[in-house]
Amino acid sequence: MLVALALPAAGQDLVQVYRDARGYDAIYAAARYALEAGREKLPQGRALVLPSLNLSANATRTRIDSESKDPALASSFVREPRTRGYTLTFTQPIFRAQNFIQYDQAEYQVKQAEASFGQAGQDLIVRVAQAYFDVLAARDTLGLVRAQKAATSEQLAQAKRNFEVGTATITDTHEAQARFDLIVAQEIAAQNDLENKRRALQQVTGKEYAELTPLRADVKLAPPNPAEMQAWVDLAERQSYPVLIQDAGTEIAALEAKRNRAGHYPTLDLVATHGQSSQTGSELSSIGSDRTTSTIGLQLALPLFQGGAISSREREAAANHEKAKQDLENARRSSVLSTRQSYLSVINGIAQVRALEQALVSSQSALDSNKLGYEVGVRINIDVLNAQQQLFQTRRDLAVARYNTITSHLRLKAAAGSLKEEDLEEVNRALGQ
Fold first, then answer.
1. What is the pLDDT of residues 109-144, one digit of tens each?
2. Domains in the chain, ordered, with CATH?
3. Residue 418 DSSP one-character state
């Protein structure tokens, strides 16, 4: 236990942060409830073709106070008849084309809701990864600025000592002081940016993390698999969630046009009723009665003319179907464009990382050379300061390029509709001290 307490607290990794976000994020929760609501379209559509049973009942009490104008012909009277009864009605649609088409629409509405939820799940993965690596990038920037501040402070102190012994001019001291003051301002900006990025991550997960597991320094970024861009484009055209959502919407619009055409068709229902009524009298008689009535039959309805509304709705639905087809084409084109852009971002990001890794080695060599040259008098202080700045800038650019390449890879899979939690776990394995 003492050994465990002596170890530093482990940072939260990407998978744990994602799990926190999945239980907290309001956008994802709203999508989950939208899925539940969308799935209810199917039983609602099924109900349109199933039988219905309704019960109605009534009870009334009436007071009749009749005063005769001619008592010889009719006497005056006061009656209070009461009636009560119920009617049970059973209806089974036999031919209702609109109802059967609407039932077919419900199946596509469920598919649309499931695709929308799938897209929300992919978006959550990308948003969590982006927010996670934004925090790491901001933390790296702050760390590099502080390291540059320490190096510049050391260079400033050395310039002051050299000036005091007469081996350097006051210009070196002023240059180092100006560079140090600038880095102090950059440190404040980096601290503020880190705090903003942490708050952005907290908005998604509902938690504030003291430490996040960083990306390993020796991580090797793999190219996309499959390696050909066209393979990713083909996947996006077939299975990307925006395409699936709009494809279902197009089918719904086509069925809606068909359903409105069916508004001209007749309807046929099987209707059966059973009822009982009882009354103690009426306005004309003081004798009560009990009655039981049962009926069964077919009910045919044929729309003849409704002011042109049916034809207008038919034309409207046809236009909306054409619009849905164009929206589907636009969704395909947008998915292709997004896939191509993400693919190129991954490929170029990997190349950029390799170039920056080589640039980092060169920048370190340049700094070492300038320090040695400054000590022997062939380099001035500003040369060392510039070399330091270039080294730290290269380190920051390398870290950001790695983060951007990883998130671009996730976006590529999301654009192709193949991003899953397993992909996030694969990225998580690249994290470590």
1. 999 999 999 999 999 999 999 999 999 999 999 988
2. 10-49+96-265+311-428 (1.20.1600.10), 53-68+75-94+267-301 (2.20.200.10)
3. -
